[in-house]
Design goal:
Layout lengths: L1 H29 L6 E3 L18 H13 L3 H4 L10 H22 L31 E8 L4 E11 L5 E4 L1 H14 L3 H4 L8 E3 L2 E2 H30 L4 H29 L5 H38 L9 H33 L7 H7 L1 H9 L1 H16 L7 E4 L2 E8 L3 E6 L4 E5 H6 L3 E2 L7 E9 L5 H14 L10 E8 L2 E10 L2 H26 L17 H7 L1
Parallel strand pairs: 1-3
Antiparallel strand pairs: 2-3, 3-4, 5-6, 7-8, 7-11, 8-9, 9-10, 12-14, 13-14
Helix pairs in contact: 4-5, 4-9, 7-8, 8-9, 9-10, 10-13, 15-16
Amino acid sequence: MRPLRLITGFVLLLPILFAALVPAAAQSSSEPSTRWFQAASLNQGLPEAAGFVDRDTPRGLMETFTIAAEAKDWETAAHALDLSGIAPELQAKMGPVLAENLYEVMQRGMWMDWSGLPDRPDGLDATASSDNPMAGEPRRNFRLAILDLPERPVEIRISRIKPDNGAPAWVFSEATVANIPALHEIYGPSAFESSLPGFLQHHAFWTLAWWEVIAIPLVVLLALGAAYLSYSMVGRIKRRQPYRIVRTALDAVQTPIALMAFVGTFSLIKTFAFTFSGPISRILAPLQSLLFVVALALIAVRVVDAVLDRLVRENIEELTEEHQKDTRDLYTNISAARRVAIMLAFVVGAALVLIQTKIASTLGFSLLASAGVLGLIFAFAARTVLSDIMASLQIAIAKTARIGDAVLWHGDWCTVEKINFTYLQLRSWDNRRLMVPVAQFVSETFENWTKQDPQLTKIVALRLDHRADIDALREAFQRFVEADEDITDKESAKVQVTGHSAEGMEVWFMADGPDPSTGWAIACRLREAMLKEAARLEAKAGKEPNRPAYLPREREMLIGEFDRAG
């Protein structure tokens, strides 16, 4: 019975062992496909390379290609390309040409530090952080760059290829090789460059050839000349304009137009005459796009600023009136739209720079970008500026203060002239300009005298002697109210004693004005009239016993005399 039991147990274990071994076998058979691309052959039409060829690792491939290209050994450099898309009998002829063209494209269109590529056959990056989804994983291809063709963007990639009759090798991918002619048309030397003497095409320093060292300053000088001519032309047109508002608008756009002429001239020359090397192109392309966006934004913003400034300055006195409420809303909305336009221009400019540099897709930087480190750094550094921007938009949206509003700020009666990103410009009643940070303005209490109704009650407070005849002053006050045409509600005008102290009593004379400016004038006239009346009544009383007194007095108590009298 014992042998029978052993046989039965073995039979029962067979399916379990089979189920465990089959997946392992399948995994081992499919494992190579994750480490390389299979191909029937690799560059079988190329002769043996004269120089040393290291295609075992991604870094070895780039070193081989770069060293061979710098030595003009294009036959050796051709071994760094996957020429599977070319007939074997043509590979020996076309390989060196494509290698030379690819090197010129990389010099003018790419900017990368290939020393950061892994130096392992499996392409595994042992230094990658845990945030990288490819950390600890073998790679069979890498994207080095993305270059733009007129109809589409294309990638420069290296891939690990294993031919049936050889070991795996890292080479520039077949798709990249297929795009080399089209890329060379865009990023290769122009006809003008090709016609230059040979010594000018030799390497000078960094990645620059001698012709680039000479051409860059010349192009800058030509662009500066175009900017100067544009600036002068706009200046002549401005001086001949009979209308002041047109002269103001031209003066506002004079500098942005010169900037646009500089960028446009530089871009045209760079596009049609020269193709600068990769690092220079990577700097100049986003810079000229950014400057172009800045110039357009400056033209729009400065024209709006000039027109808005002119309108506000000419109508600043009338803006506080009740019937100007819609005008104040309009000016405030224009100011808010101006700030939104600046923010959009900044966002568009930054987006153009990021798109053209493709900085987020470069090796190593994508890890930093994916982790959000740059966003955190930017937000921390710009937290104050961002807070001010949001506060200025809050003022514009909530309309707590509008351009033309009369406000009382820290005891100063002011008119709002400008609402900028970081500060408000207030004009005080004596024509002083107060620059108030928006963060402070939105966090502190202030009086807005034209928020709902510009009409307000003005109070003239006088300190008078305890013996003053209030009824006599009230009669004089009523005569003033009846005679003054600016007081809107004559029935609500009144005189009240609001307090007293050892020095005298405090009397308020209250009258309504249609707006802050007129109310201020009413208060000044009322104060003058009441002081004159108090002086007149006091002079009229003379030295009569128990006479009323109006102007406050300082009293002295002689303690010693009272003691002697006692």
